Amino acid sequence: MPPSLFNRTPQPPTYRILVPLGGNPSDEVALRLACDIAKKEKGRVQAVYVIEVRRTQALDAELPPELEQGEVILREAEALGSQLQTEIDTELLQAREVGPAVVDEACDRGVQLIVMGLPYKRKFGDFSLGRSAPYILKHAPCRVWILREPPAAAE
Amino acid sequence: MRVVIMGCGRVGSTLAANLDQGGHEVTIVDLDSSQFRRLPAGFGGRSLVGNGIDQDVLRRAGIEEADAFVAVTQGDNHNVLASQIAKHVFSVHNVICRMYDLVREEFYQDLGLTTISPTKVISGMIGDMLHHPE
Amino acid sequence: MYIILVGGGKVGFHLARALLSEGHEVLVIERDRRKCVSINDELGSVVLQGDGCEAAILAEAGASRADLVIAVTGGDEDNLVVCQLAKGKFHTPRTIARINNPKNESIFKKLGIDDTISSTQVIMERIQAEIPSHPLLHLASLGSYGLELVNLSVAEGAAAAGHKLRDISLPPQTVVSLIIGADGPRVPTGDTLIQIGDEVIAVTRVESEDALRAQFASQH
After folding, report:
1. Which of B55, B75, B103 lies closest to C77 in CB terms?
2. pLDDT tens string A6-49
3. ipTM of this model?
4. Domains in chain A: boundaries
5. B53 contacts in C (CB within 8 Å)?
6. pTM as predicted
7. Domain A16-154: which CATH class?
8. Structural domain count, chain C
9. Which residue, A62, B72, B105, C153, is the most exposed by fewest CB within 10 angstroms?
């Protein structure tokens, strides 16, 4: 029977996983996990690196050193993807703060999952989640997985 | 000398008492009447409850006839506004403004205000004491 | 334009939203952490937590590339310092200060603040626009601006009775906003006739209240 236009089951949306990168070793763990899931779900992984632009500069200011650093981090992500035989899309953003930029990106792309690594950091002697993770946990429109590094690795 | 002092904290009340002792005509202004308890029993000056950045309060304190105005409340910005009112609206000859923040102090000094920063003075003095112990 | 707002209270928040919707780049500087969080939640990352009277915070905010600095805190002294620092230290081309106490307007002008906005002025305008449709409870907060909302009944033998509004000598800074007569409320014009038994609602300065009352009360 020819497929009918009307009762065709809707194509499920591609399973999109967003991996915000911070330029630290926990990135790799997050990317590997995201690739595993993407394979299972036939999804896509998108790695994003956000350059935080200080208020003293316009948001679209040219920041060559930061840009280069971001490109290096994203190229490493791409390389890891091809090693794992998963294509990783990459994107470099400039924003005032990482948290809102990641959430906006997740909204715009219709992401189903955010996977991010979190180095174990201390602030004033106490464990600190940092600024971005709490914001993303609170505001992301999708599931969020945070992979916290073991304490020793951070010291 | 006729002096209007804004802020009856430790510095304001001590200054008021000293000037009064020295035979000067002192009016001290504070928002909080309980602050006037800091003044000594025999204080012969005037104390006035009110906000020193209110021009009517300053008028009642006699700023129009004052030779000097001293702003020593806890708030730098409060002191700055009152001092500028004293200087530019009432043309008080001698205006002294206390400021804790060094950056602002320098800035207002450049704008022509006579300022004093306890932060600078006291840290300098302690430094001297450390370098030249008795 | 890049606009820095100092003060994230109600005025700052709504102003930020309006300016953002016009496509400006906006940053709000606010001391109180909770206010910062709630503004960020509503408007995105547009807040810097700190004291806008501190030169270091203004520097971090990029005051030297701002086209406009607006100080809208509840303290006139803070608003003055923000604008003076912005102008004198960061060479901000334009500064606007909110003035809470109308008596400060002249000193701000004298000290070179380009523009001042007195909340009293704004509220007066709003009162005139809003009274016909809103209950009067709305206006209780006027006391702190040295203004009062008064309700007067035109007594028999009152000086104003039988005269047109424009012919009545009102004390300075007094606005008759509404007249409620036998045939219902009306927004008065100069031609409105004041009649015995009318309810007159007016905004006046505290010190003018007696002079105003004298016009509408019985003269006996």
Report:
1. B75
2. 666 666 678 999 999 999 999 999 999 999 999 998 899 999 99
3. 0.86
4. 16-154
5. 76-77, 101, 104
6. 0.71
7. alpha beta
8. 2
9. A62
